[in-house]
Design goal:
The complex is a heterodimer of chains A (about 260) and B (about 475). Chain A has about 260 residues and is an alpha/beta fold. Helices cover about 50% and strands about 15% of the residues of chain A. The N and C termini of chain B lie far apart (about 65 Å). Chain B has 24 helices and 12 strands. Classes of the chains: A alpha/beta (about 260), B alpha/beta (about 475).
Chain lengths: ~260, ~475
């Protein structure tokens, strides 16, 4: 492990599929936050952590992807993901995945110990107490389930958001209740997922905050998609964009101003 | 009415109906509004609650690891007390034991305390078919019996029914009472049920209860209730039959007391249930009251096959209902949508073991894995993990839907080839972004109908992160 005093901490950014494909700006916000905190950021060639396969019961594919990912990030001191769900997969489930294969289990155990969700990594590991960012207005923050319950991500984003100039956090009635995304659940049980997210968007709208933040793009695409369908004027963003002060890109699901009809 | 043919394989249809059932949706508001806050408050009042959960888990694990010894000890003690144990390997065996006990004694009327095992084995239907009147004495169970329904919750069987619906049902059933009576307050409904049930208690030939615990050390069965109906059910008739599954065994009274400290708190947020009733065999000569006969029907119904396997942890369940009280899926559709006896996360794990994964396999799939159930489970059952085990079994046996299997295989092909993935995804996202750039989202999208029927699909920003990063830094690492 690198000595922080001599050598910058080598952080491998596991950007996650959804950020890679749909919202690269979150990846760049993560890079900025990590570099501002003194890390050297690497982006190994990567695809997916395997969670969709894992939660669909396909252990063989999951193991292939887990081995691939662990090899890709082998040289890093830490592996950080801007997602509680994907970080939870790396930090908690890889160990379970290889239970019964002593050699791989040990490897997965050591690997899992260096995996973290972005915001909790900044606060809990790097000791970041505030960010240098500005955001005008009220925001509601949704606690994504995996981050909250598998990794204990709750106070860390709130702590850093409190340091953002001009930002006011308005809590939902139940910020810790699932948005109904659940990965493939959202399409396998679309109607049920819709009923759950409708309750969530009602809670979001009731805060009166014009902006919704969360730490997982999956949940955000679900909530933003529902808010847009309902015609509710709430802008959804990943919390890293606000913490990094990188909010030039339009919110999730909204067009760039110059291309507006 | 109980354990009718399962409809778990029609879960999606059940969901569709439940979401359109206005009275149900109104009643479900009660679950969200009450159970969660009450449990949280009870936990706040007891600083050692988390340690008690560990202790409850450990007691159950220890018992399951030595279940043969404790069952033997229990049987021995029960015999010393003058009680009789009847092993029932299957649901049918259990029903047959109860029926023959009732028939041999010429029983015409049976009162019943609340029991999920009774639902699991379909006891009420069997009794009725045998010409024996079965009367549920728990208020909630009584209400759903009048309505011809199964329970929708393991501790609050009529939680899906609103007060005005109960009043309507009572007017229909209690024709001997004045038609114009006031039934607008819960307390009036309670008083009426109590009055009607009083005669039934006094005239019953046999009383049947479940058990929250069977204590190996003393041969005692324990039930907890809030209405005291359990006491009248088991004390007044000449015969008391306890029906319980073998996972209800605990070693000692001390162990039962320890688990009781997490049971009611997790269930209703009470420190203790109002009545905790211990029964140790039939009436002794010096007892002022009690049944002349005391029988225990111990049901296996597949549970012993769970021992030592990946679903063993499920046998720790103490049936508090906290998992369903905190479940977003249960909140949305209620218990009947699960299509069989046990709803919510515990039902999603248990149902496939009891009725088969082909019939019950939808249930462990219908979870977002939000983890709230595991977070509140008083015996720390890893419910999402067990639901995942079911998905694995389905996948291994090729029972998962073809669309899911092909979709996964297609995705996995790319995900296992990082270079190909990077090129292909970059091209795809650029194209998708171009198409969606005017609105920033899609109201409809080929192959994504299951998403866009309900929600817009946000358009990607353009080139992928990896492609931009490489362009920026000129390298991968």
């Amino acid at each position: 492990m690198a000595d922080a005093a001599r050598d910058p901490i080598r952080v491998g950014l596991f950007v996650t599929c959804l950020v890679d494909l749909f919202r690269p700006s979150v990846g760049f916000a993560a890079v900025k936050l990590l570099e501002d905190a003194g890390c050297r950021v690497f982006v190994p060639s990567q695809t997916c952590c395997g969670q969709p396969a894992y939660n669909s019961g396909d252990r063989a594919t999951t193991k292939d992807l887990a081995r691939q990912l662990m090899a890709a990030f082998e040289d890093c001191d830490y592996v950080v993901a801007p997602s509680g769900s994907c970080a939870g997969m790396l930090a908690k489930h890889y160990r379970e995945l290889f239970a019964g294969e002593p050699e791989m289990a040990g490897k997965a155990q050591r690997f899992s110990e260096k995996c973290h969700e972005l915001v909790s990594f900044l606060v809990d590991v790097l000791g970041v107490e505030k960010v240098d960012a500005h955001f005008n207005g009220a925001v509601a923050y949704h606690d994504s389930c995996s981050g909250l319950r598998e990794l204990g991500v709750a106070r860390q984003p709130r702590r850093l958001l409190a340091s953002v100039a001009g930002l006011q956090l308005v809590e939902m009635k139940t910020p810790d209740v699932c948005c109904g995304f659940g990965g493939t659940f959202a399409v396998k049980y679309g109607e049920l997922s819709d009923a759950i997210v409708a309750r969530k968007t009602a809670d979001i709208v009731a805060t009166g905050a014009p902006t919704l933040l969360a730490g997982d793009v999956g949940c955000l695409m679900n909530m933003a998609g529902k808010l847009l369908r309902e015609g509710k004027p709430v802008a959804a963003r990943h919390v890293a964009e606000v913490l990094a002060g990188m909010t030039d890109e339009p919110p999730i699901g909204q067009p760039k101003p110059e291309t507006k009809a | 009415m109980s354990a009718a043919a399962p409809t778990s394989s029609h879960f999606k249809d059940n969901v569709h109906e439940a979401l359109r059932n206005a009275p149900l949706q109104k009643a479900l508001g009660h679950v969200r509004a009450n159970f969660i806050e009450r449990r949280a408050e009870a936990v706040r009042r007891l600083p050692e609650f988390e340690r008690l959960r560990d202790s409850a888990r450990d007691i159950k694990d220890h018992t399951l690891a030595h279940l043969d010894l404790y069952l033997e000890a229990y049987e021995g003690k029960l015999g010393e007390l003058g009680g009789q144990l009847h092993y029932a390997l299957t649901a049918k065996d259990a029903v047959d034991v109860v029926l023959s006990l009732c028939r041999e004694r010429g029983a015409k009327s049976v009162t019943k305390g609340k029991s999920m095992i009774s639902e699991e084995i379909g006891l009420n239907d069997a009794l009725e078919s045998a010409g024996i009147e079965a009367i549920e004495t728990d208020l909630g169970e009584y209400i759903i019996q009048l309505r011809g329904e199964a329970p929708s919750h393991i501790i609050a069987p009529a939680v899906h029914v609103n007060g005005e619906e109960v009043a309507e049902e009572f007017r229909r059933a209690h024709l001997h009472l004045p038609a114009g009576r006031d039934l607008s307050e819960p307390v009036q409904l309670l008083a009426e049920a109590r009055g009607v049930l009083r005669d039934k208690f006094l005239n019953a030939d046999v009383g049947i209860t479940g058990a929250n615990f069977l204590v190996a050390e003393t041969g005692t069965s324990i039930i907890v209730t809030n209405e005291g109906n359990g006491d009248l059910t088991q004390i007044l008739p000449k015969v008391h039959i306890v029906i319980a599954s073998l996972d209800k065994i605990v070693p000692t009274l001390e162990d039962a007391a320890q688990i009781l400290r997490v049971l009611a708190r997790s269930a209703t947020g009470q420190d203790m249930s109002v009545y905790t009733t211990l029964s140790s065999g039939p009436r002794r000569p010096t007892d002022p009251d009690g049944p002349e006969e005391y029988h225990v029907v111990l049901l296996d119904n597949g549970r012993s096959l769970m021992l030592g396997g990946e679903f063993e942890d499920m046998l720790r369940c103490i049936r508090c209902g906290a998992c369903m009280n905190h479940c977003p899926v249960y909140h949305a559709v209620g218990g009947h949508a699960y299509g069989w006896v046990y709803p919510g996360p515990m039902g999603a794990v248990l149902t496939p073991t009891l009725i088969g994964v082909a019939e019950g396999g939808q249930l462990p799939n219908a979870s977002t894995f939000c983890g709230r159930c595991e977070e509140v489970c008083p015996v720390r059952i890893p419910l999402p993990k067990m639901m995942r085990h079911w998905r694995e079994r389905e996948f291994e046996r090729h029972l998962s839907p073809a669309t899911l299997r092909y979709g996964l295989a297609f995705w996995a092909f790319f995900a296992k080839r990082p270079t190909l993935y990077r090129f292909a995804s970059d091209i795809a996202m650029r194209a998708l972004s171009l198409v969606g750039r005017n609105k920033g989202r899609f109201a409809a999208l080929p192959l994504a109908g299951a998403w866009t029927r309900y929600r817009d699909f946000p358009a990607p920003q353009g080139a992928t992160f990896q492609s931009r990063w490489r362009a920026k830094s000129g390298r991968v690492k």
